[in-house]
Amino acid sequence: MKRIAIIGSGHLGQQILYHIQSDTNNKVVGFFDDFQQKGNSVKNIPVLGGKDYIMEYFEKNIFDELVIAIGYKHLEVKRQLFEDFKNRIPFYSFVHSTSIVDPSAKIGKGTIIYPNCMIDQDVEIGDNVLMNISCSVAHDSVIGDHCFLSPSVCIAGFANIGELCIIGINSTIIDNINIAAKIQLGGGTVVIKNLETSGLYVGNPARFIR
Domain 3-85, CATH 3.40.50.20 — does that match? Predict the structure, then answer.
């Protein structure tokens, strides 16, 4: 059994708590949250303090591994937290038991994969990625570090998604597509050609908004 601490006690942190404790033998022992008072409890899990307490509690052997539950609105914060602790504390990776991951696929550190996802042959998922329910990533595709995939995203083969991307619900990316870093796809967006400029894209086919 691993003892897990979660950075972020909001809705995303509570979802990750639920999946870890309902689907594994591991135990979440506390939250770290700069916006909660130390000593409060969330879903019966104590708030151990803000991020400044993380190293102290790790060195006291209170937890074994760390996971970041920061949503898509704050991906740069999510990235910075990962960089701050990646060489100091092990990060916990979670794949829900209902998801199918080919043995040849690679899953990065601190990556969270929700229920009913499909990850095909030779796919690479980077560090600190969150993949929400029912996403599918076909063979030989790459998802960069710190990305956020919303529910029911569908990515075809040989796609390459840069880091810090937000892929909106029900988005579709056809095969052999390159998507640059820091791109956001609105819900239902269909990508049929490379996206090279960071920003928000929506529609079918995807068009640049800002």
Answer: yes
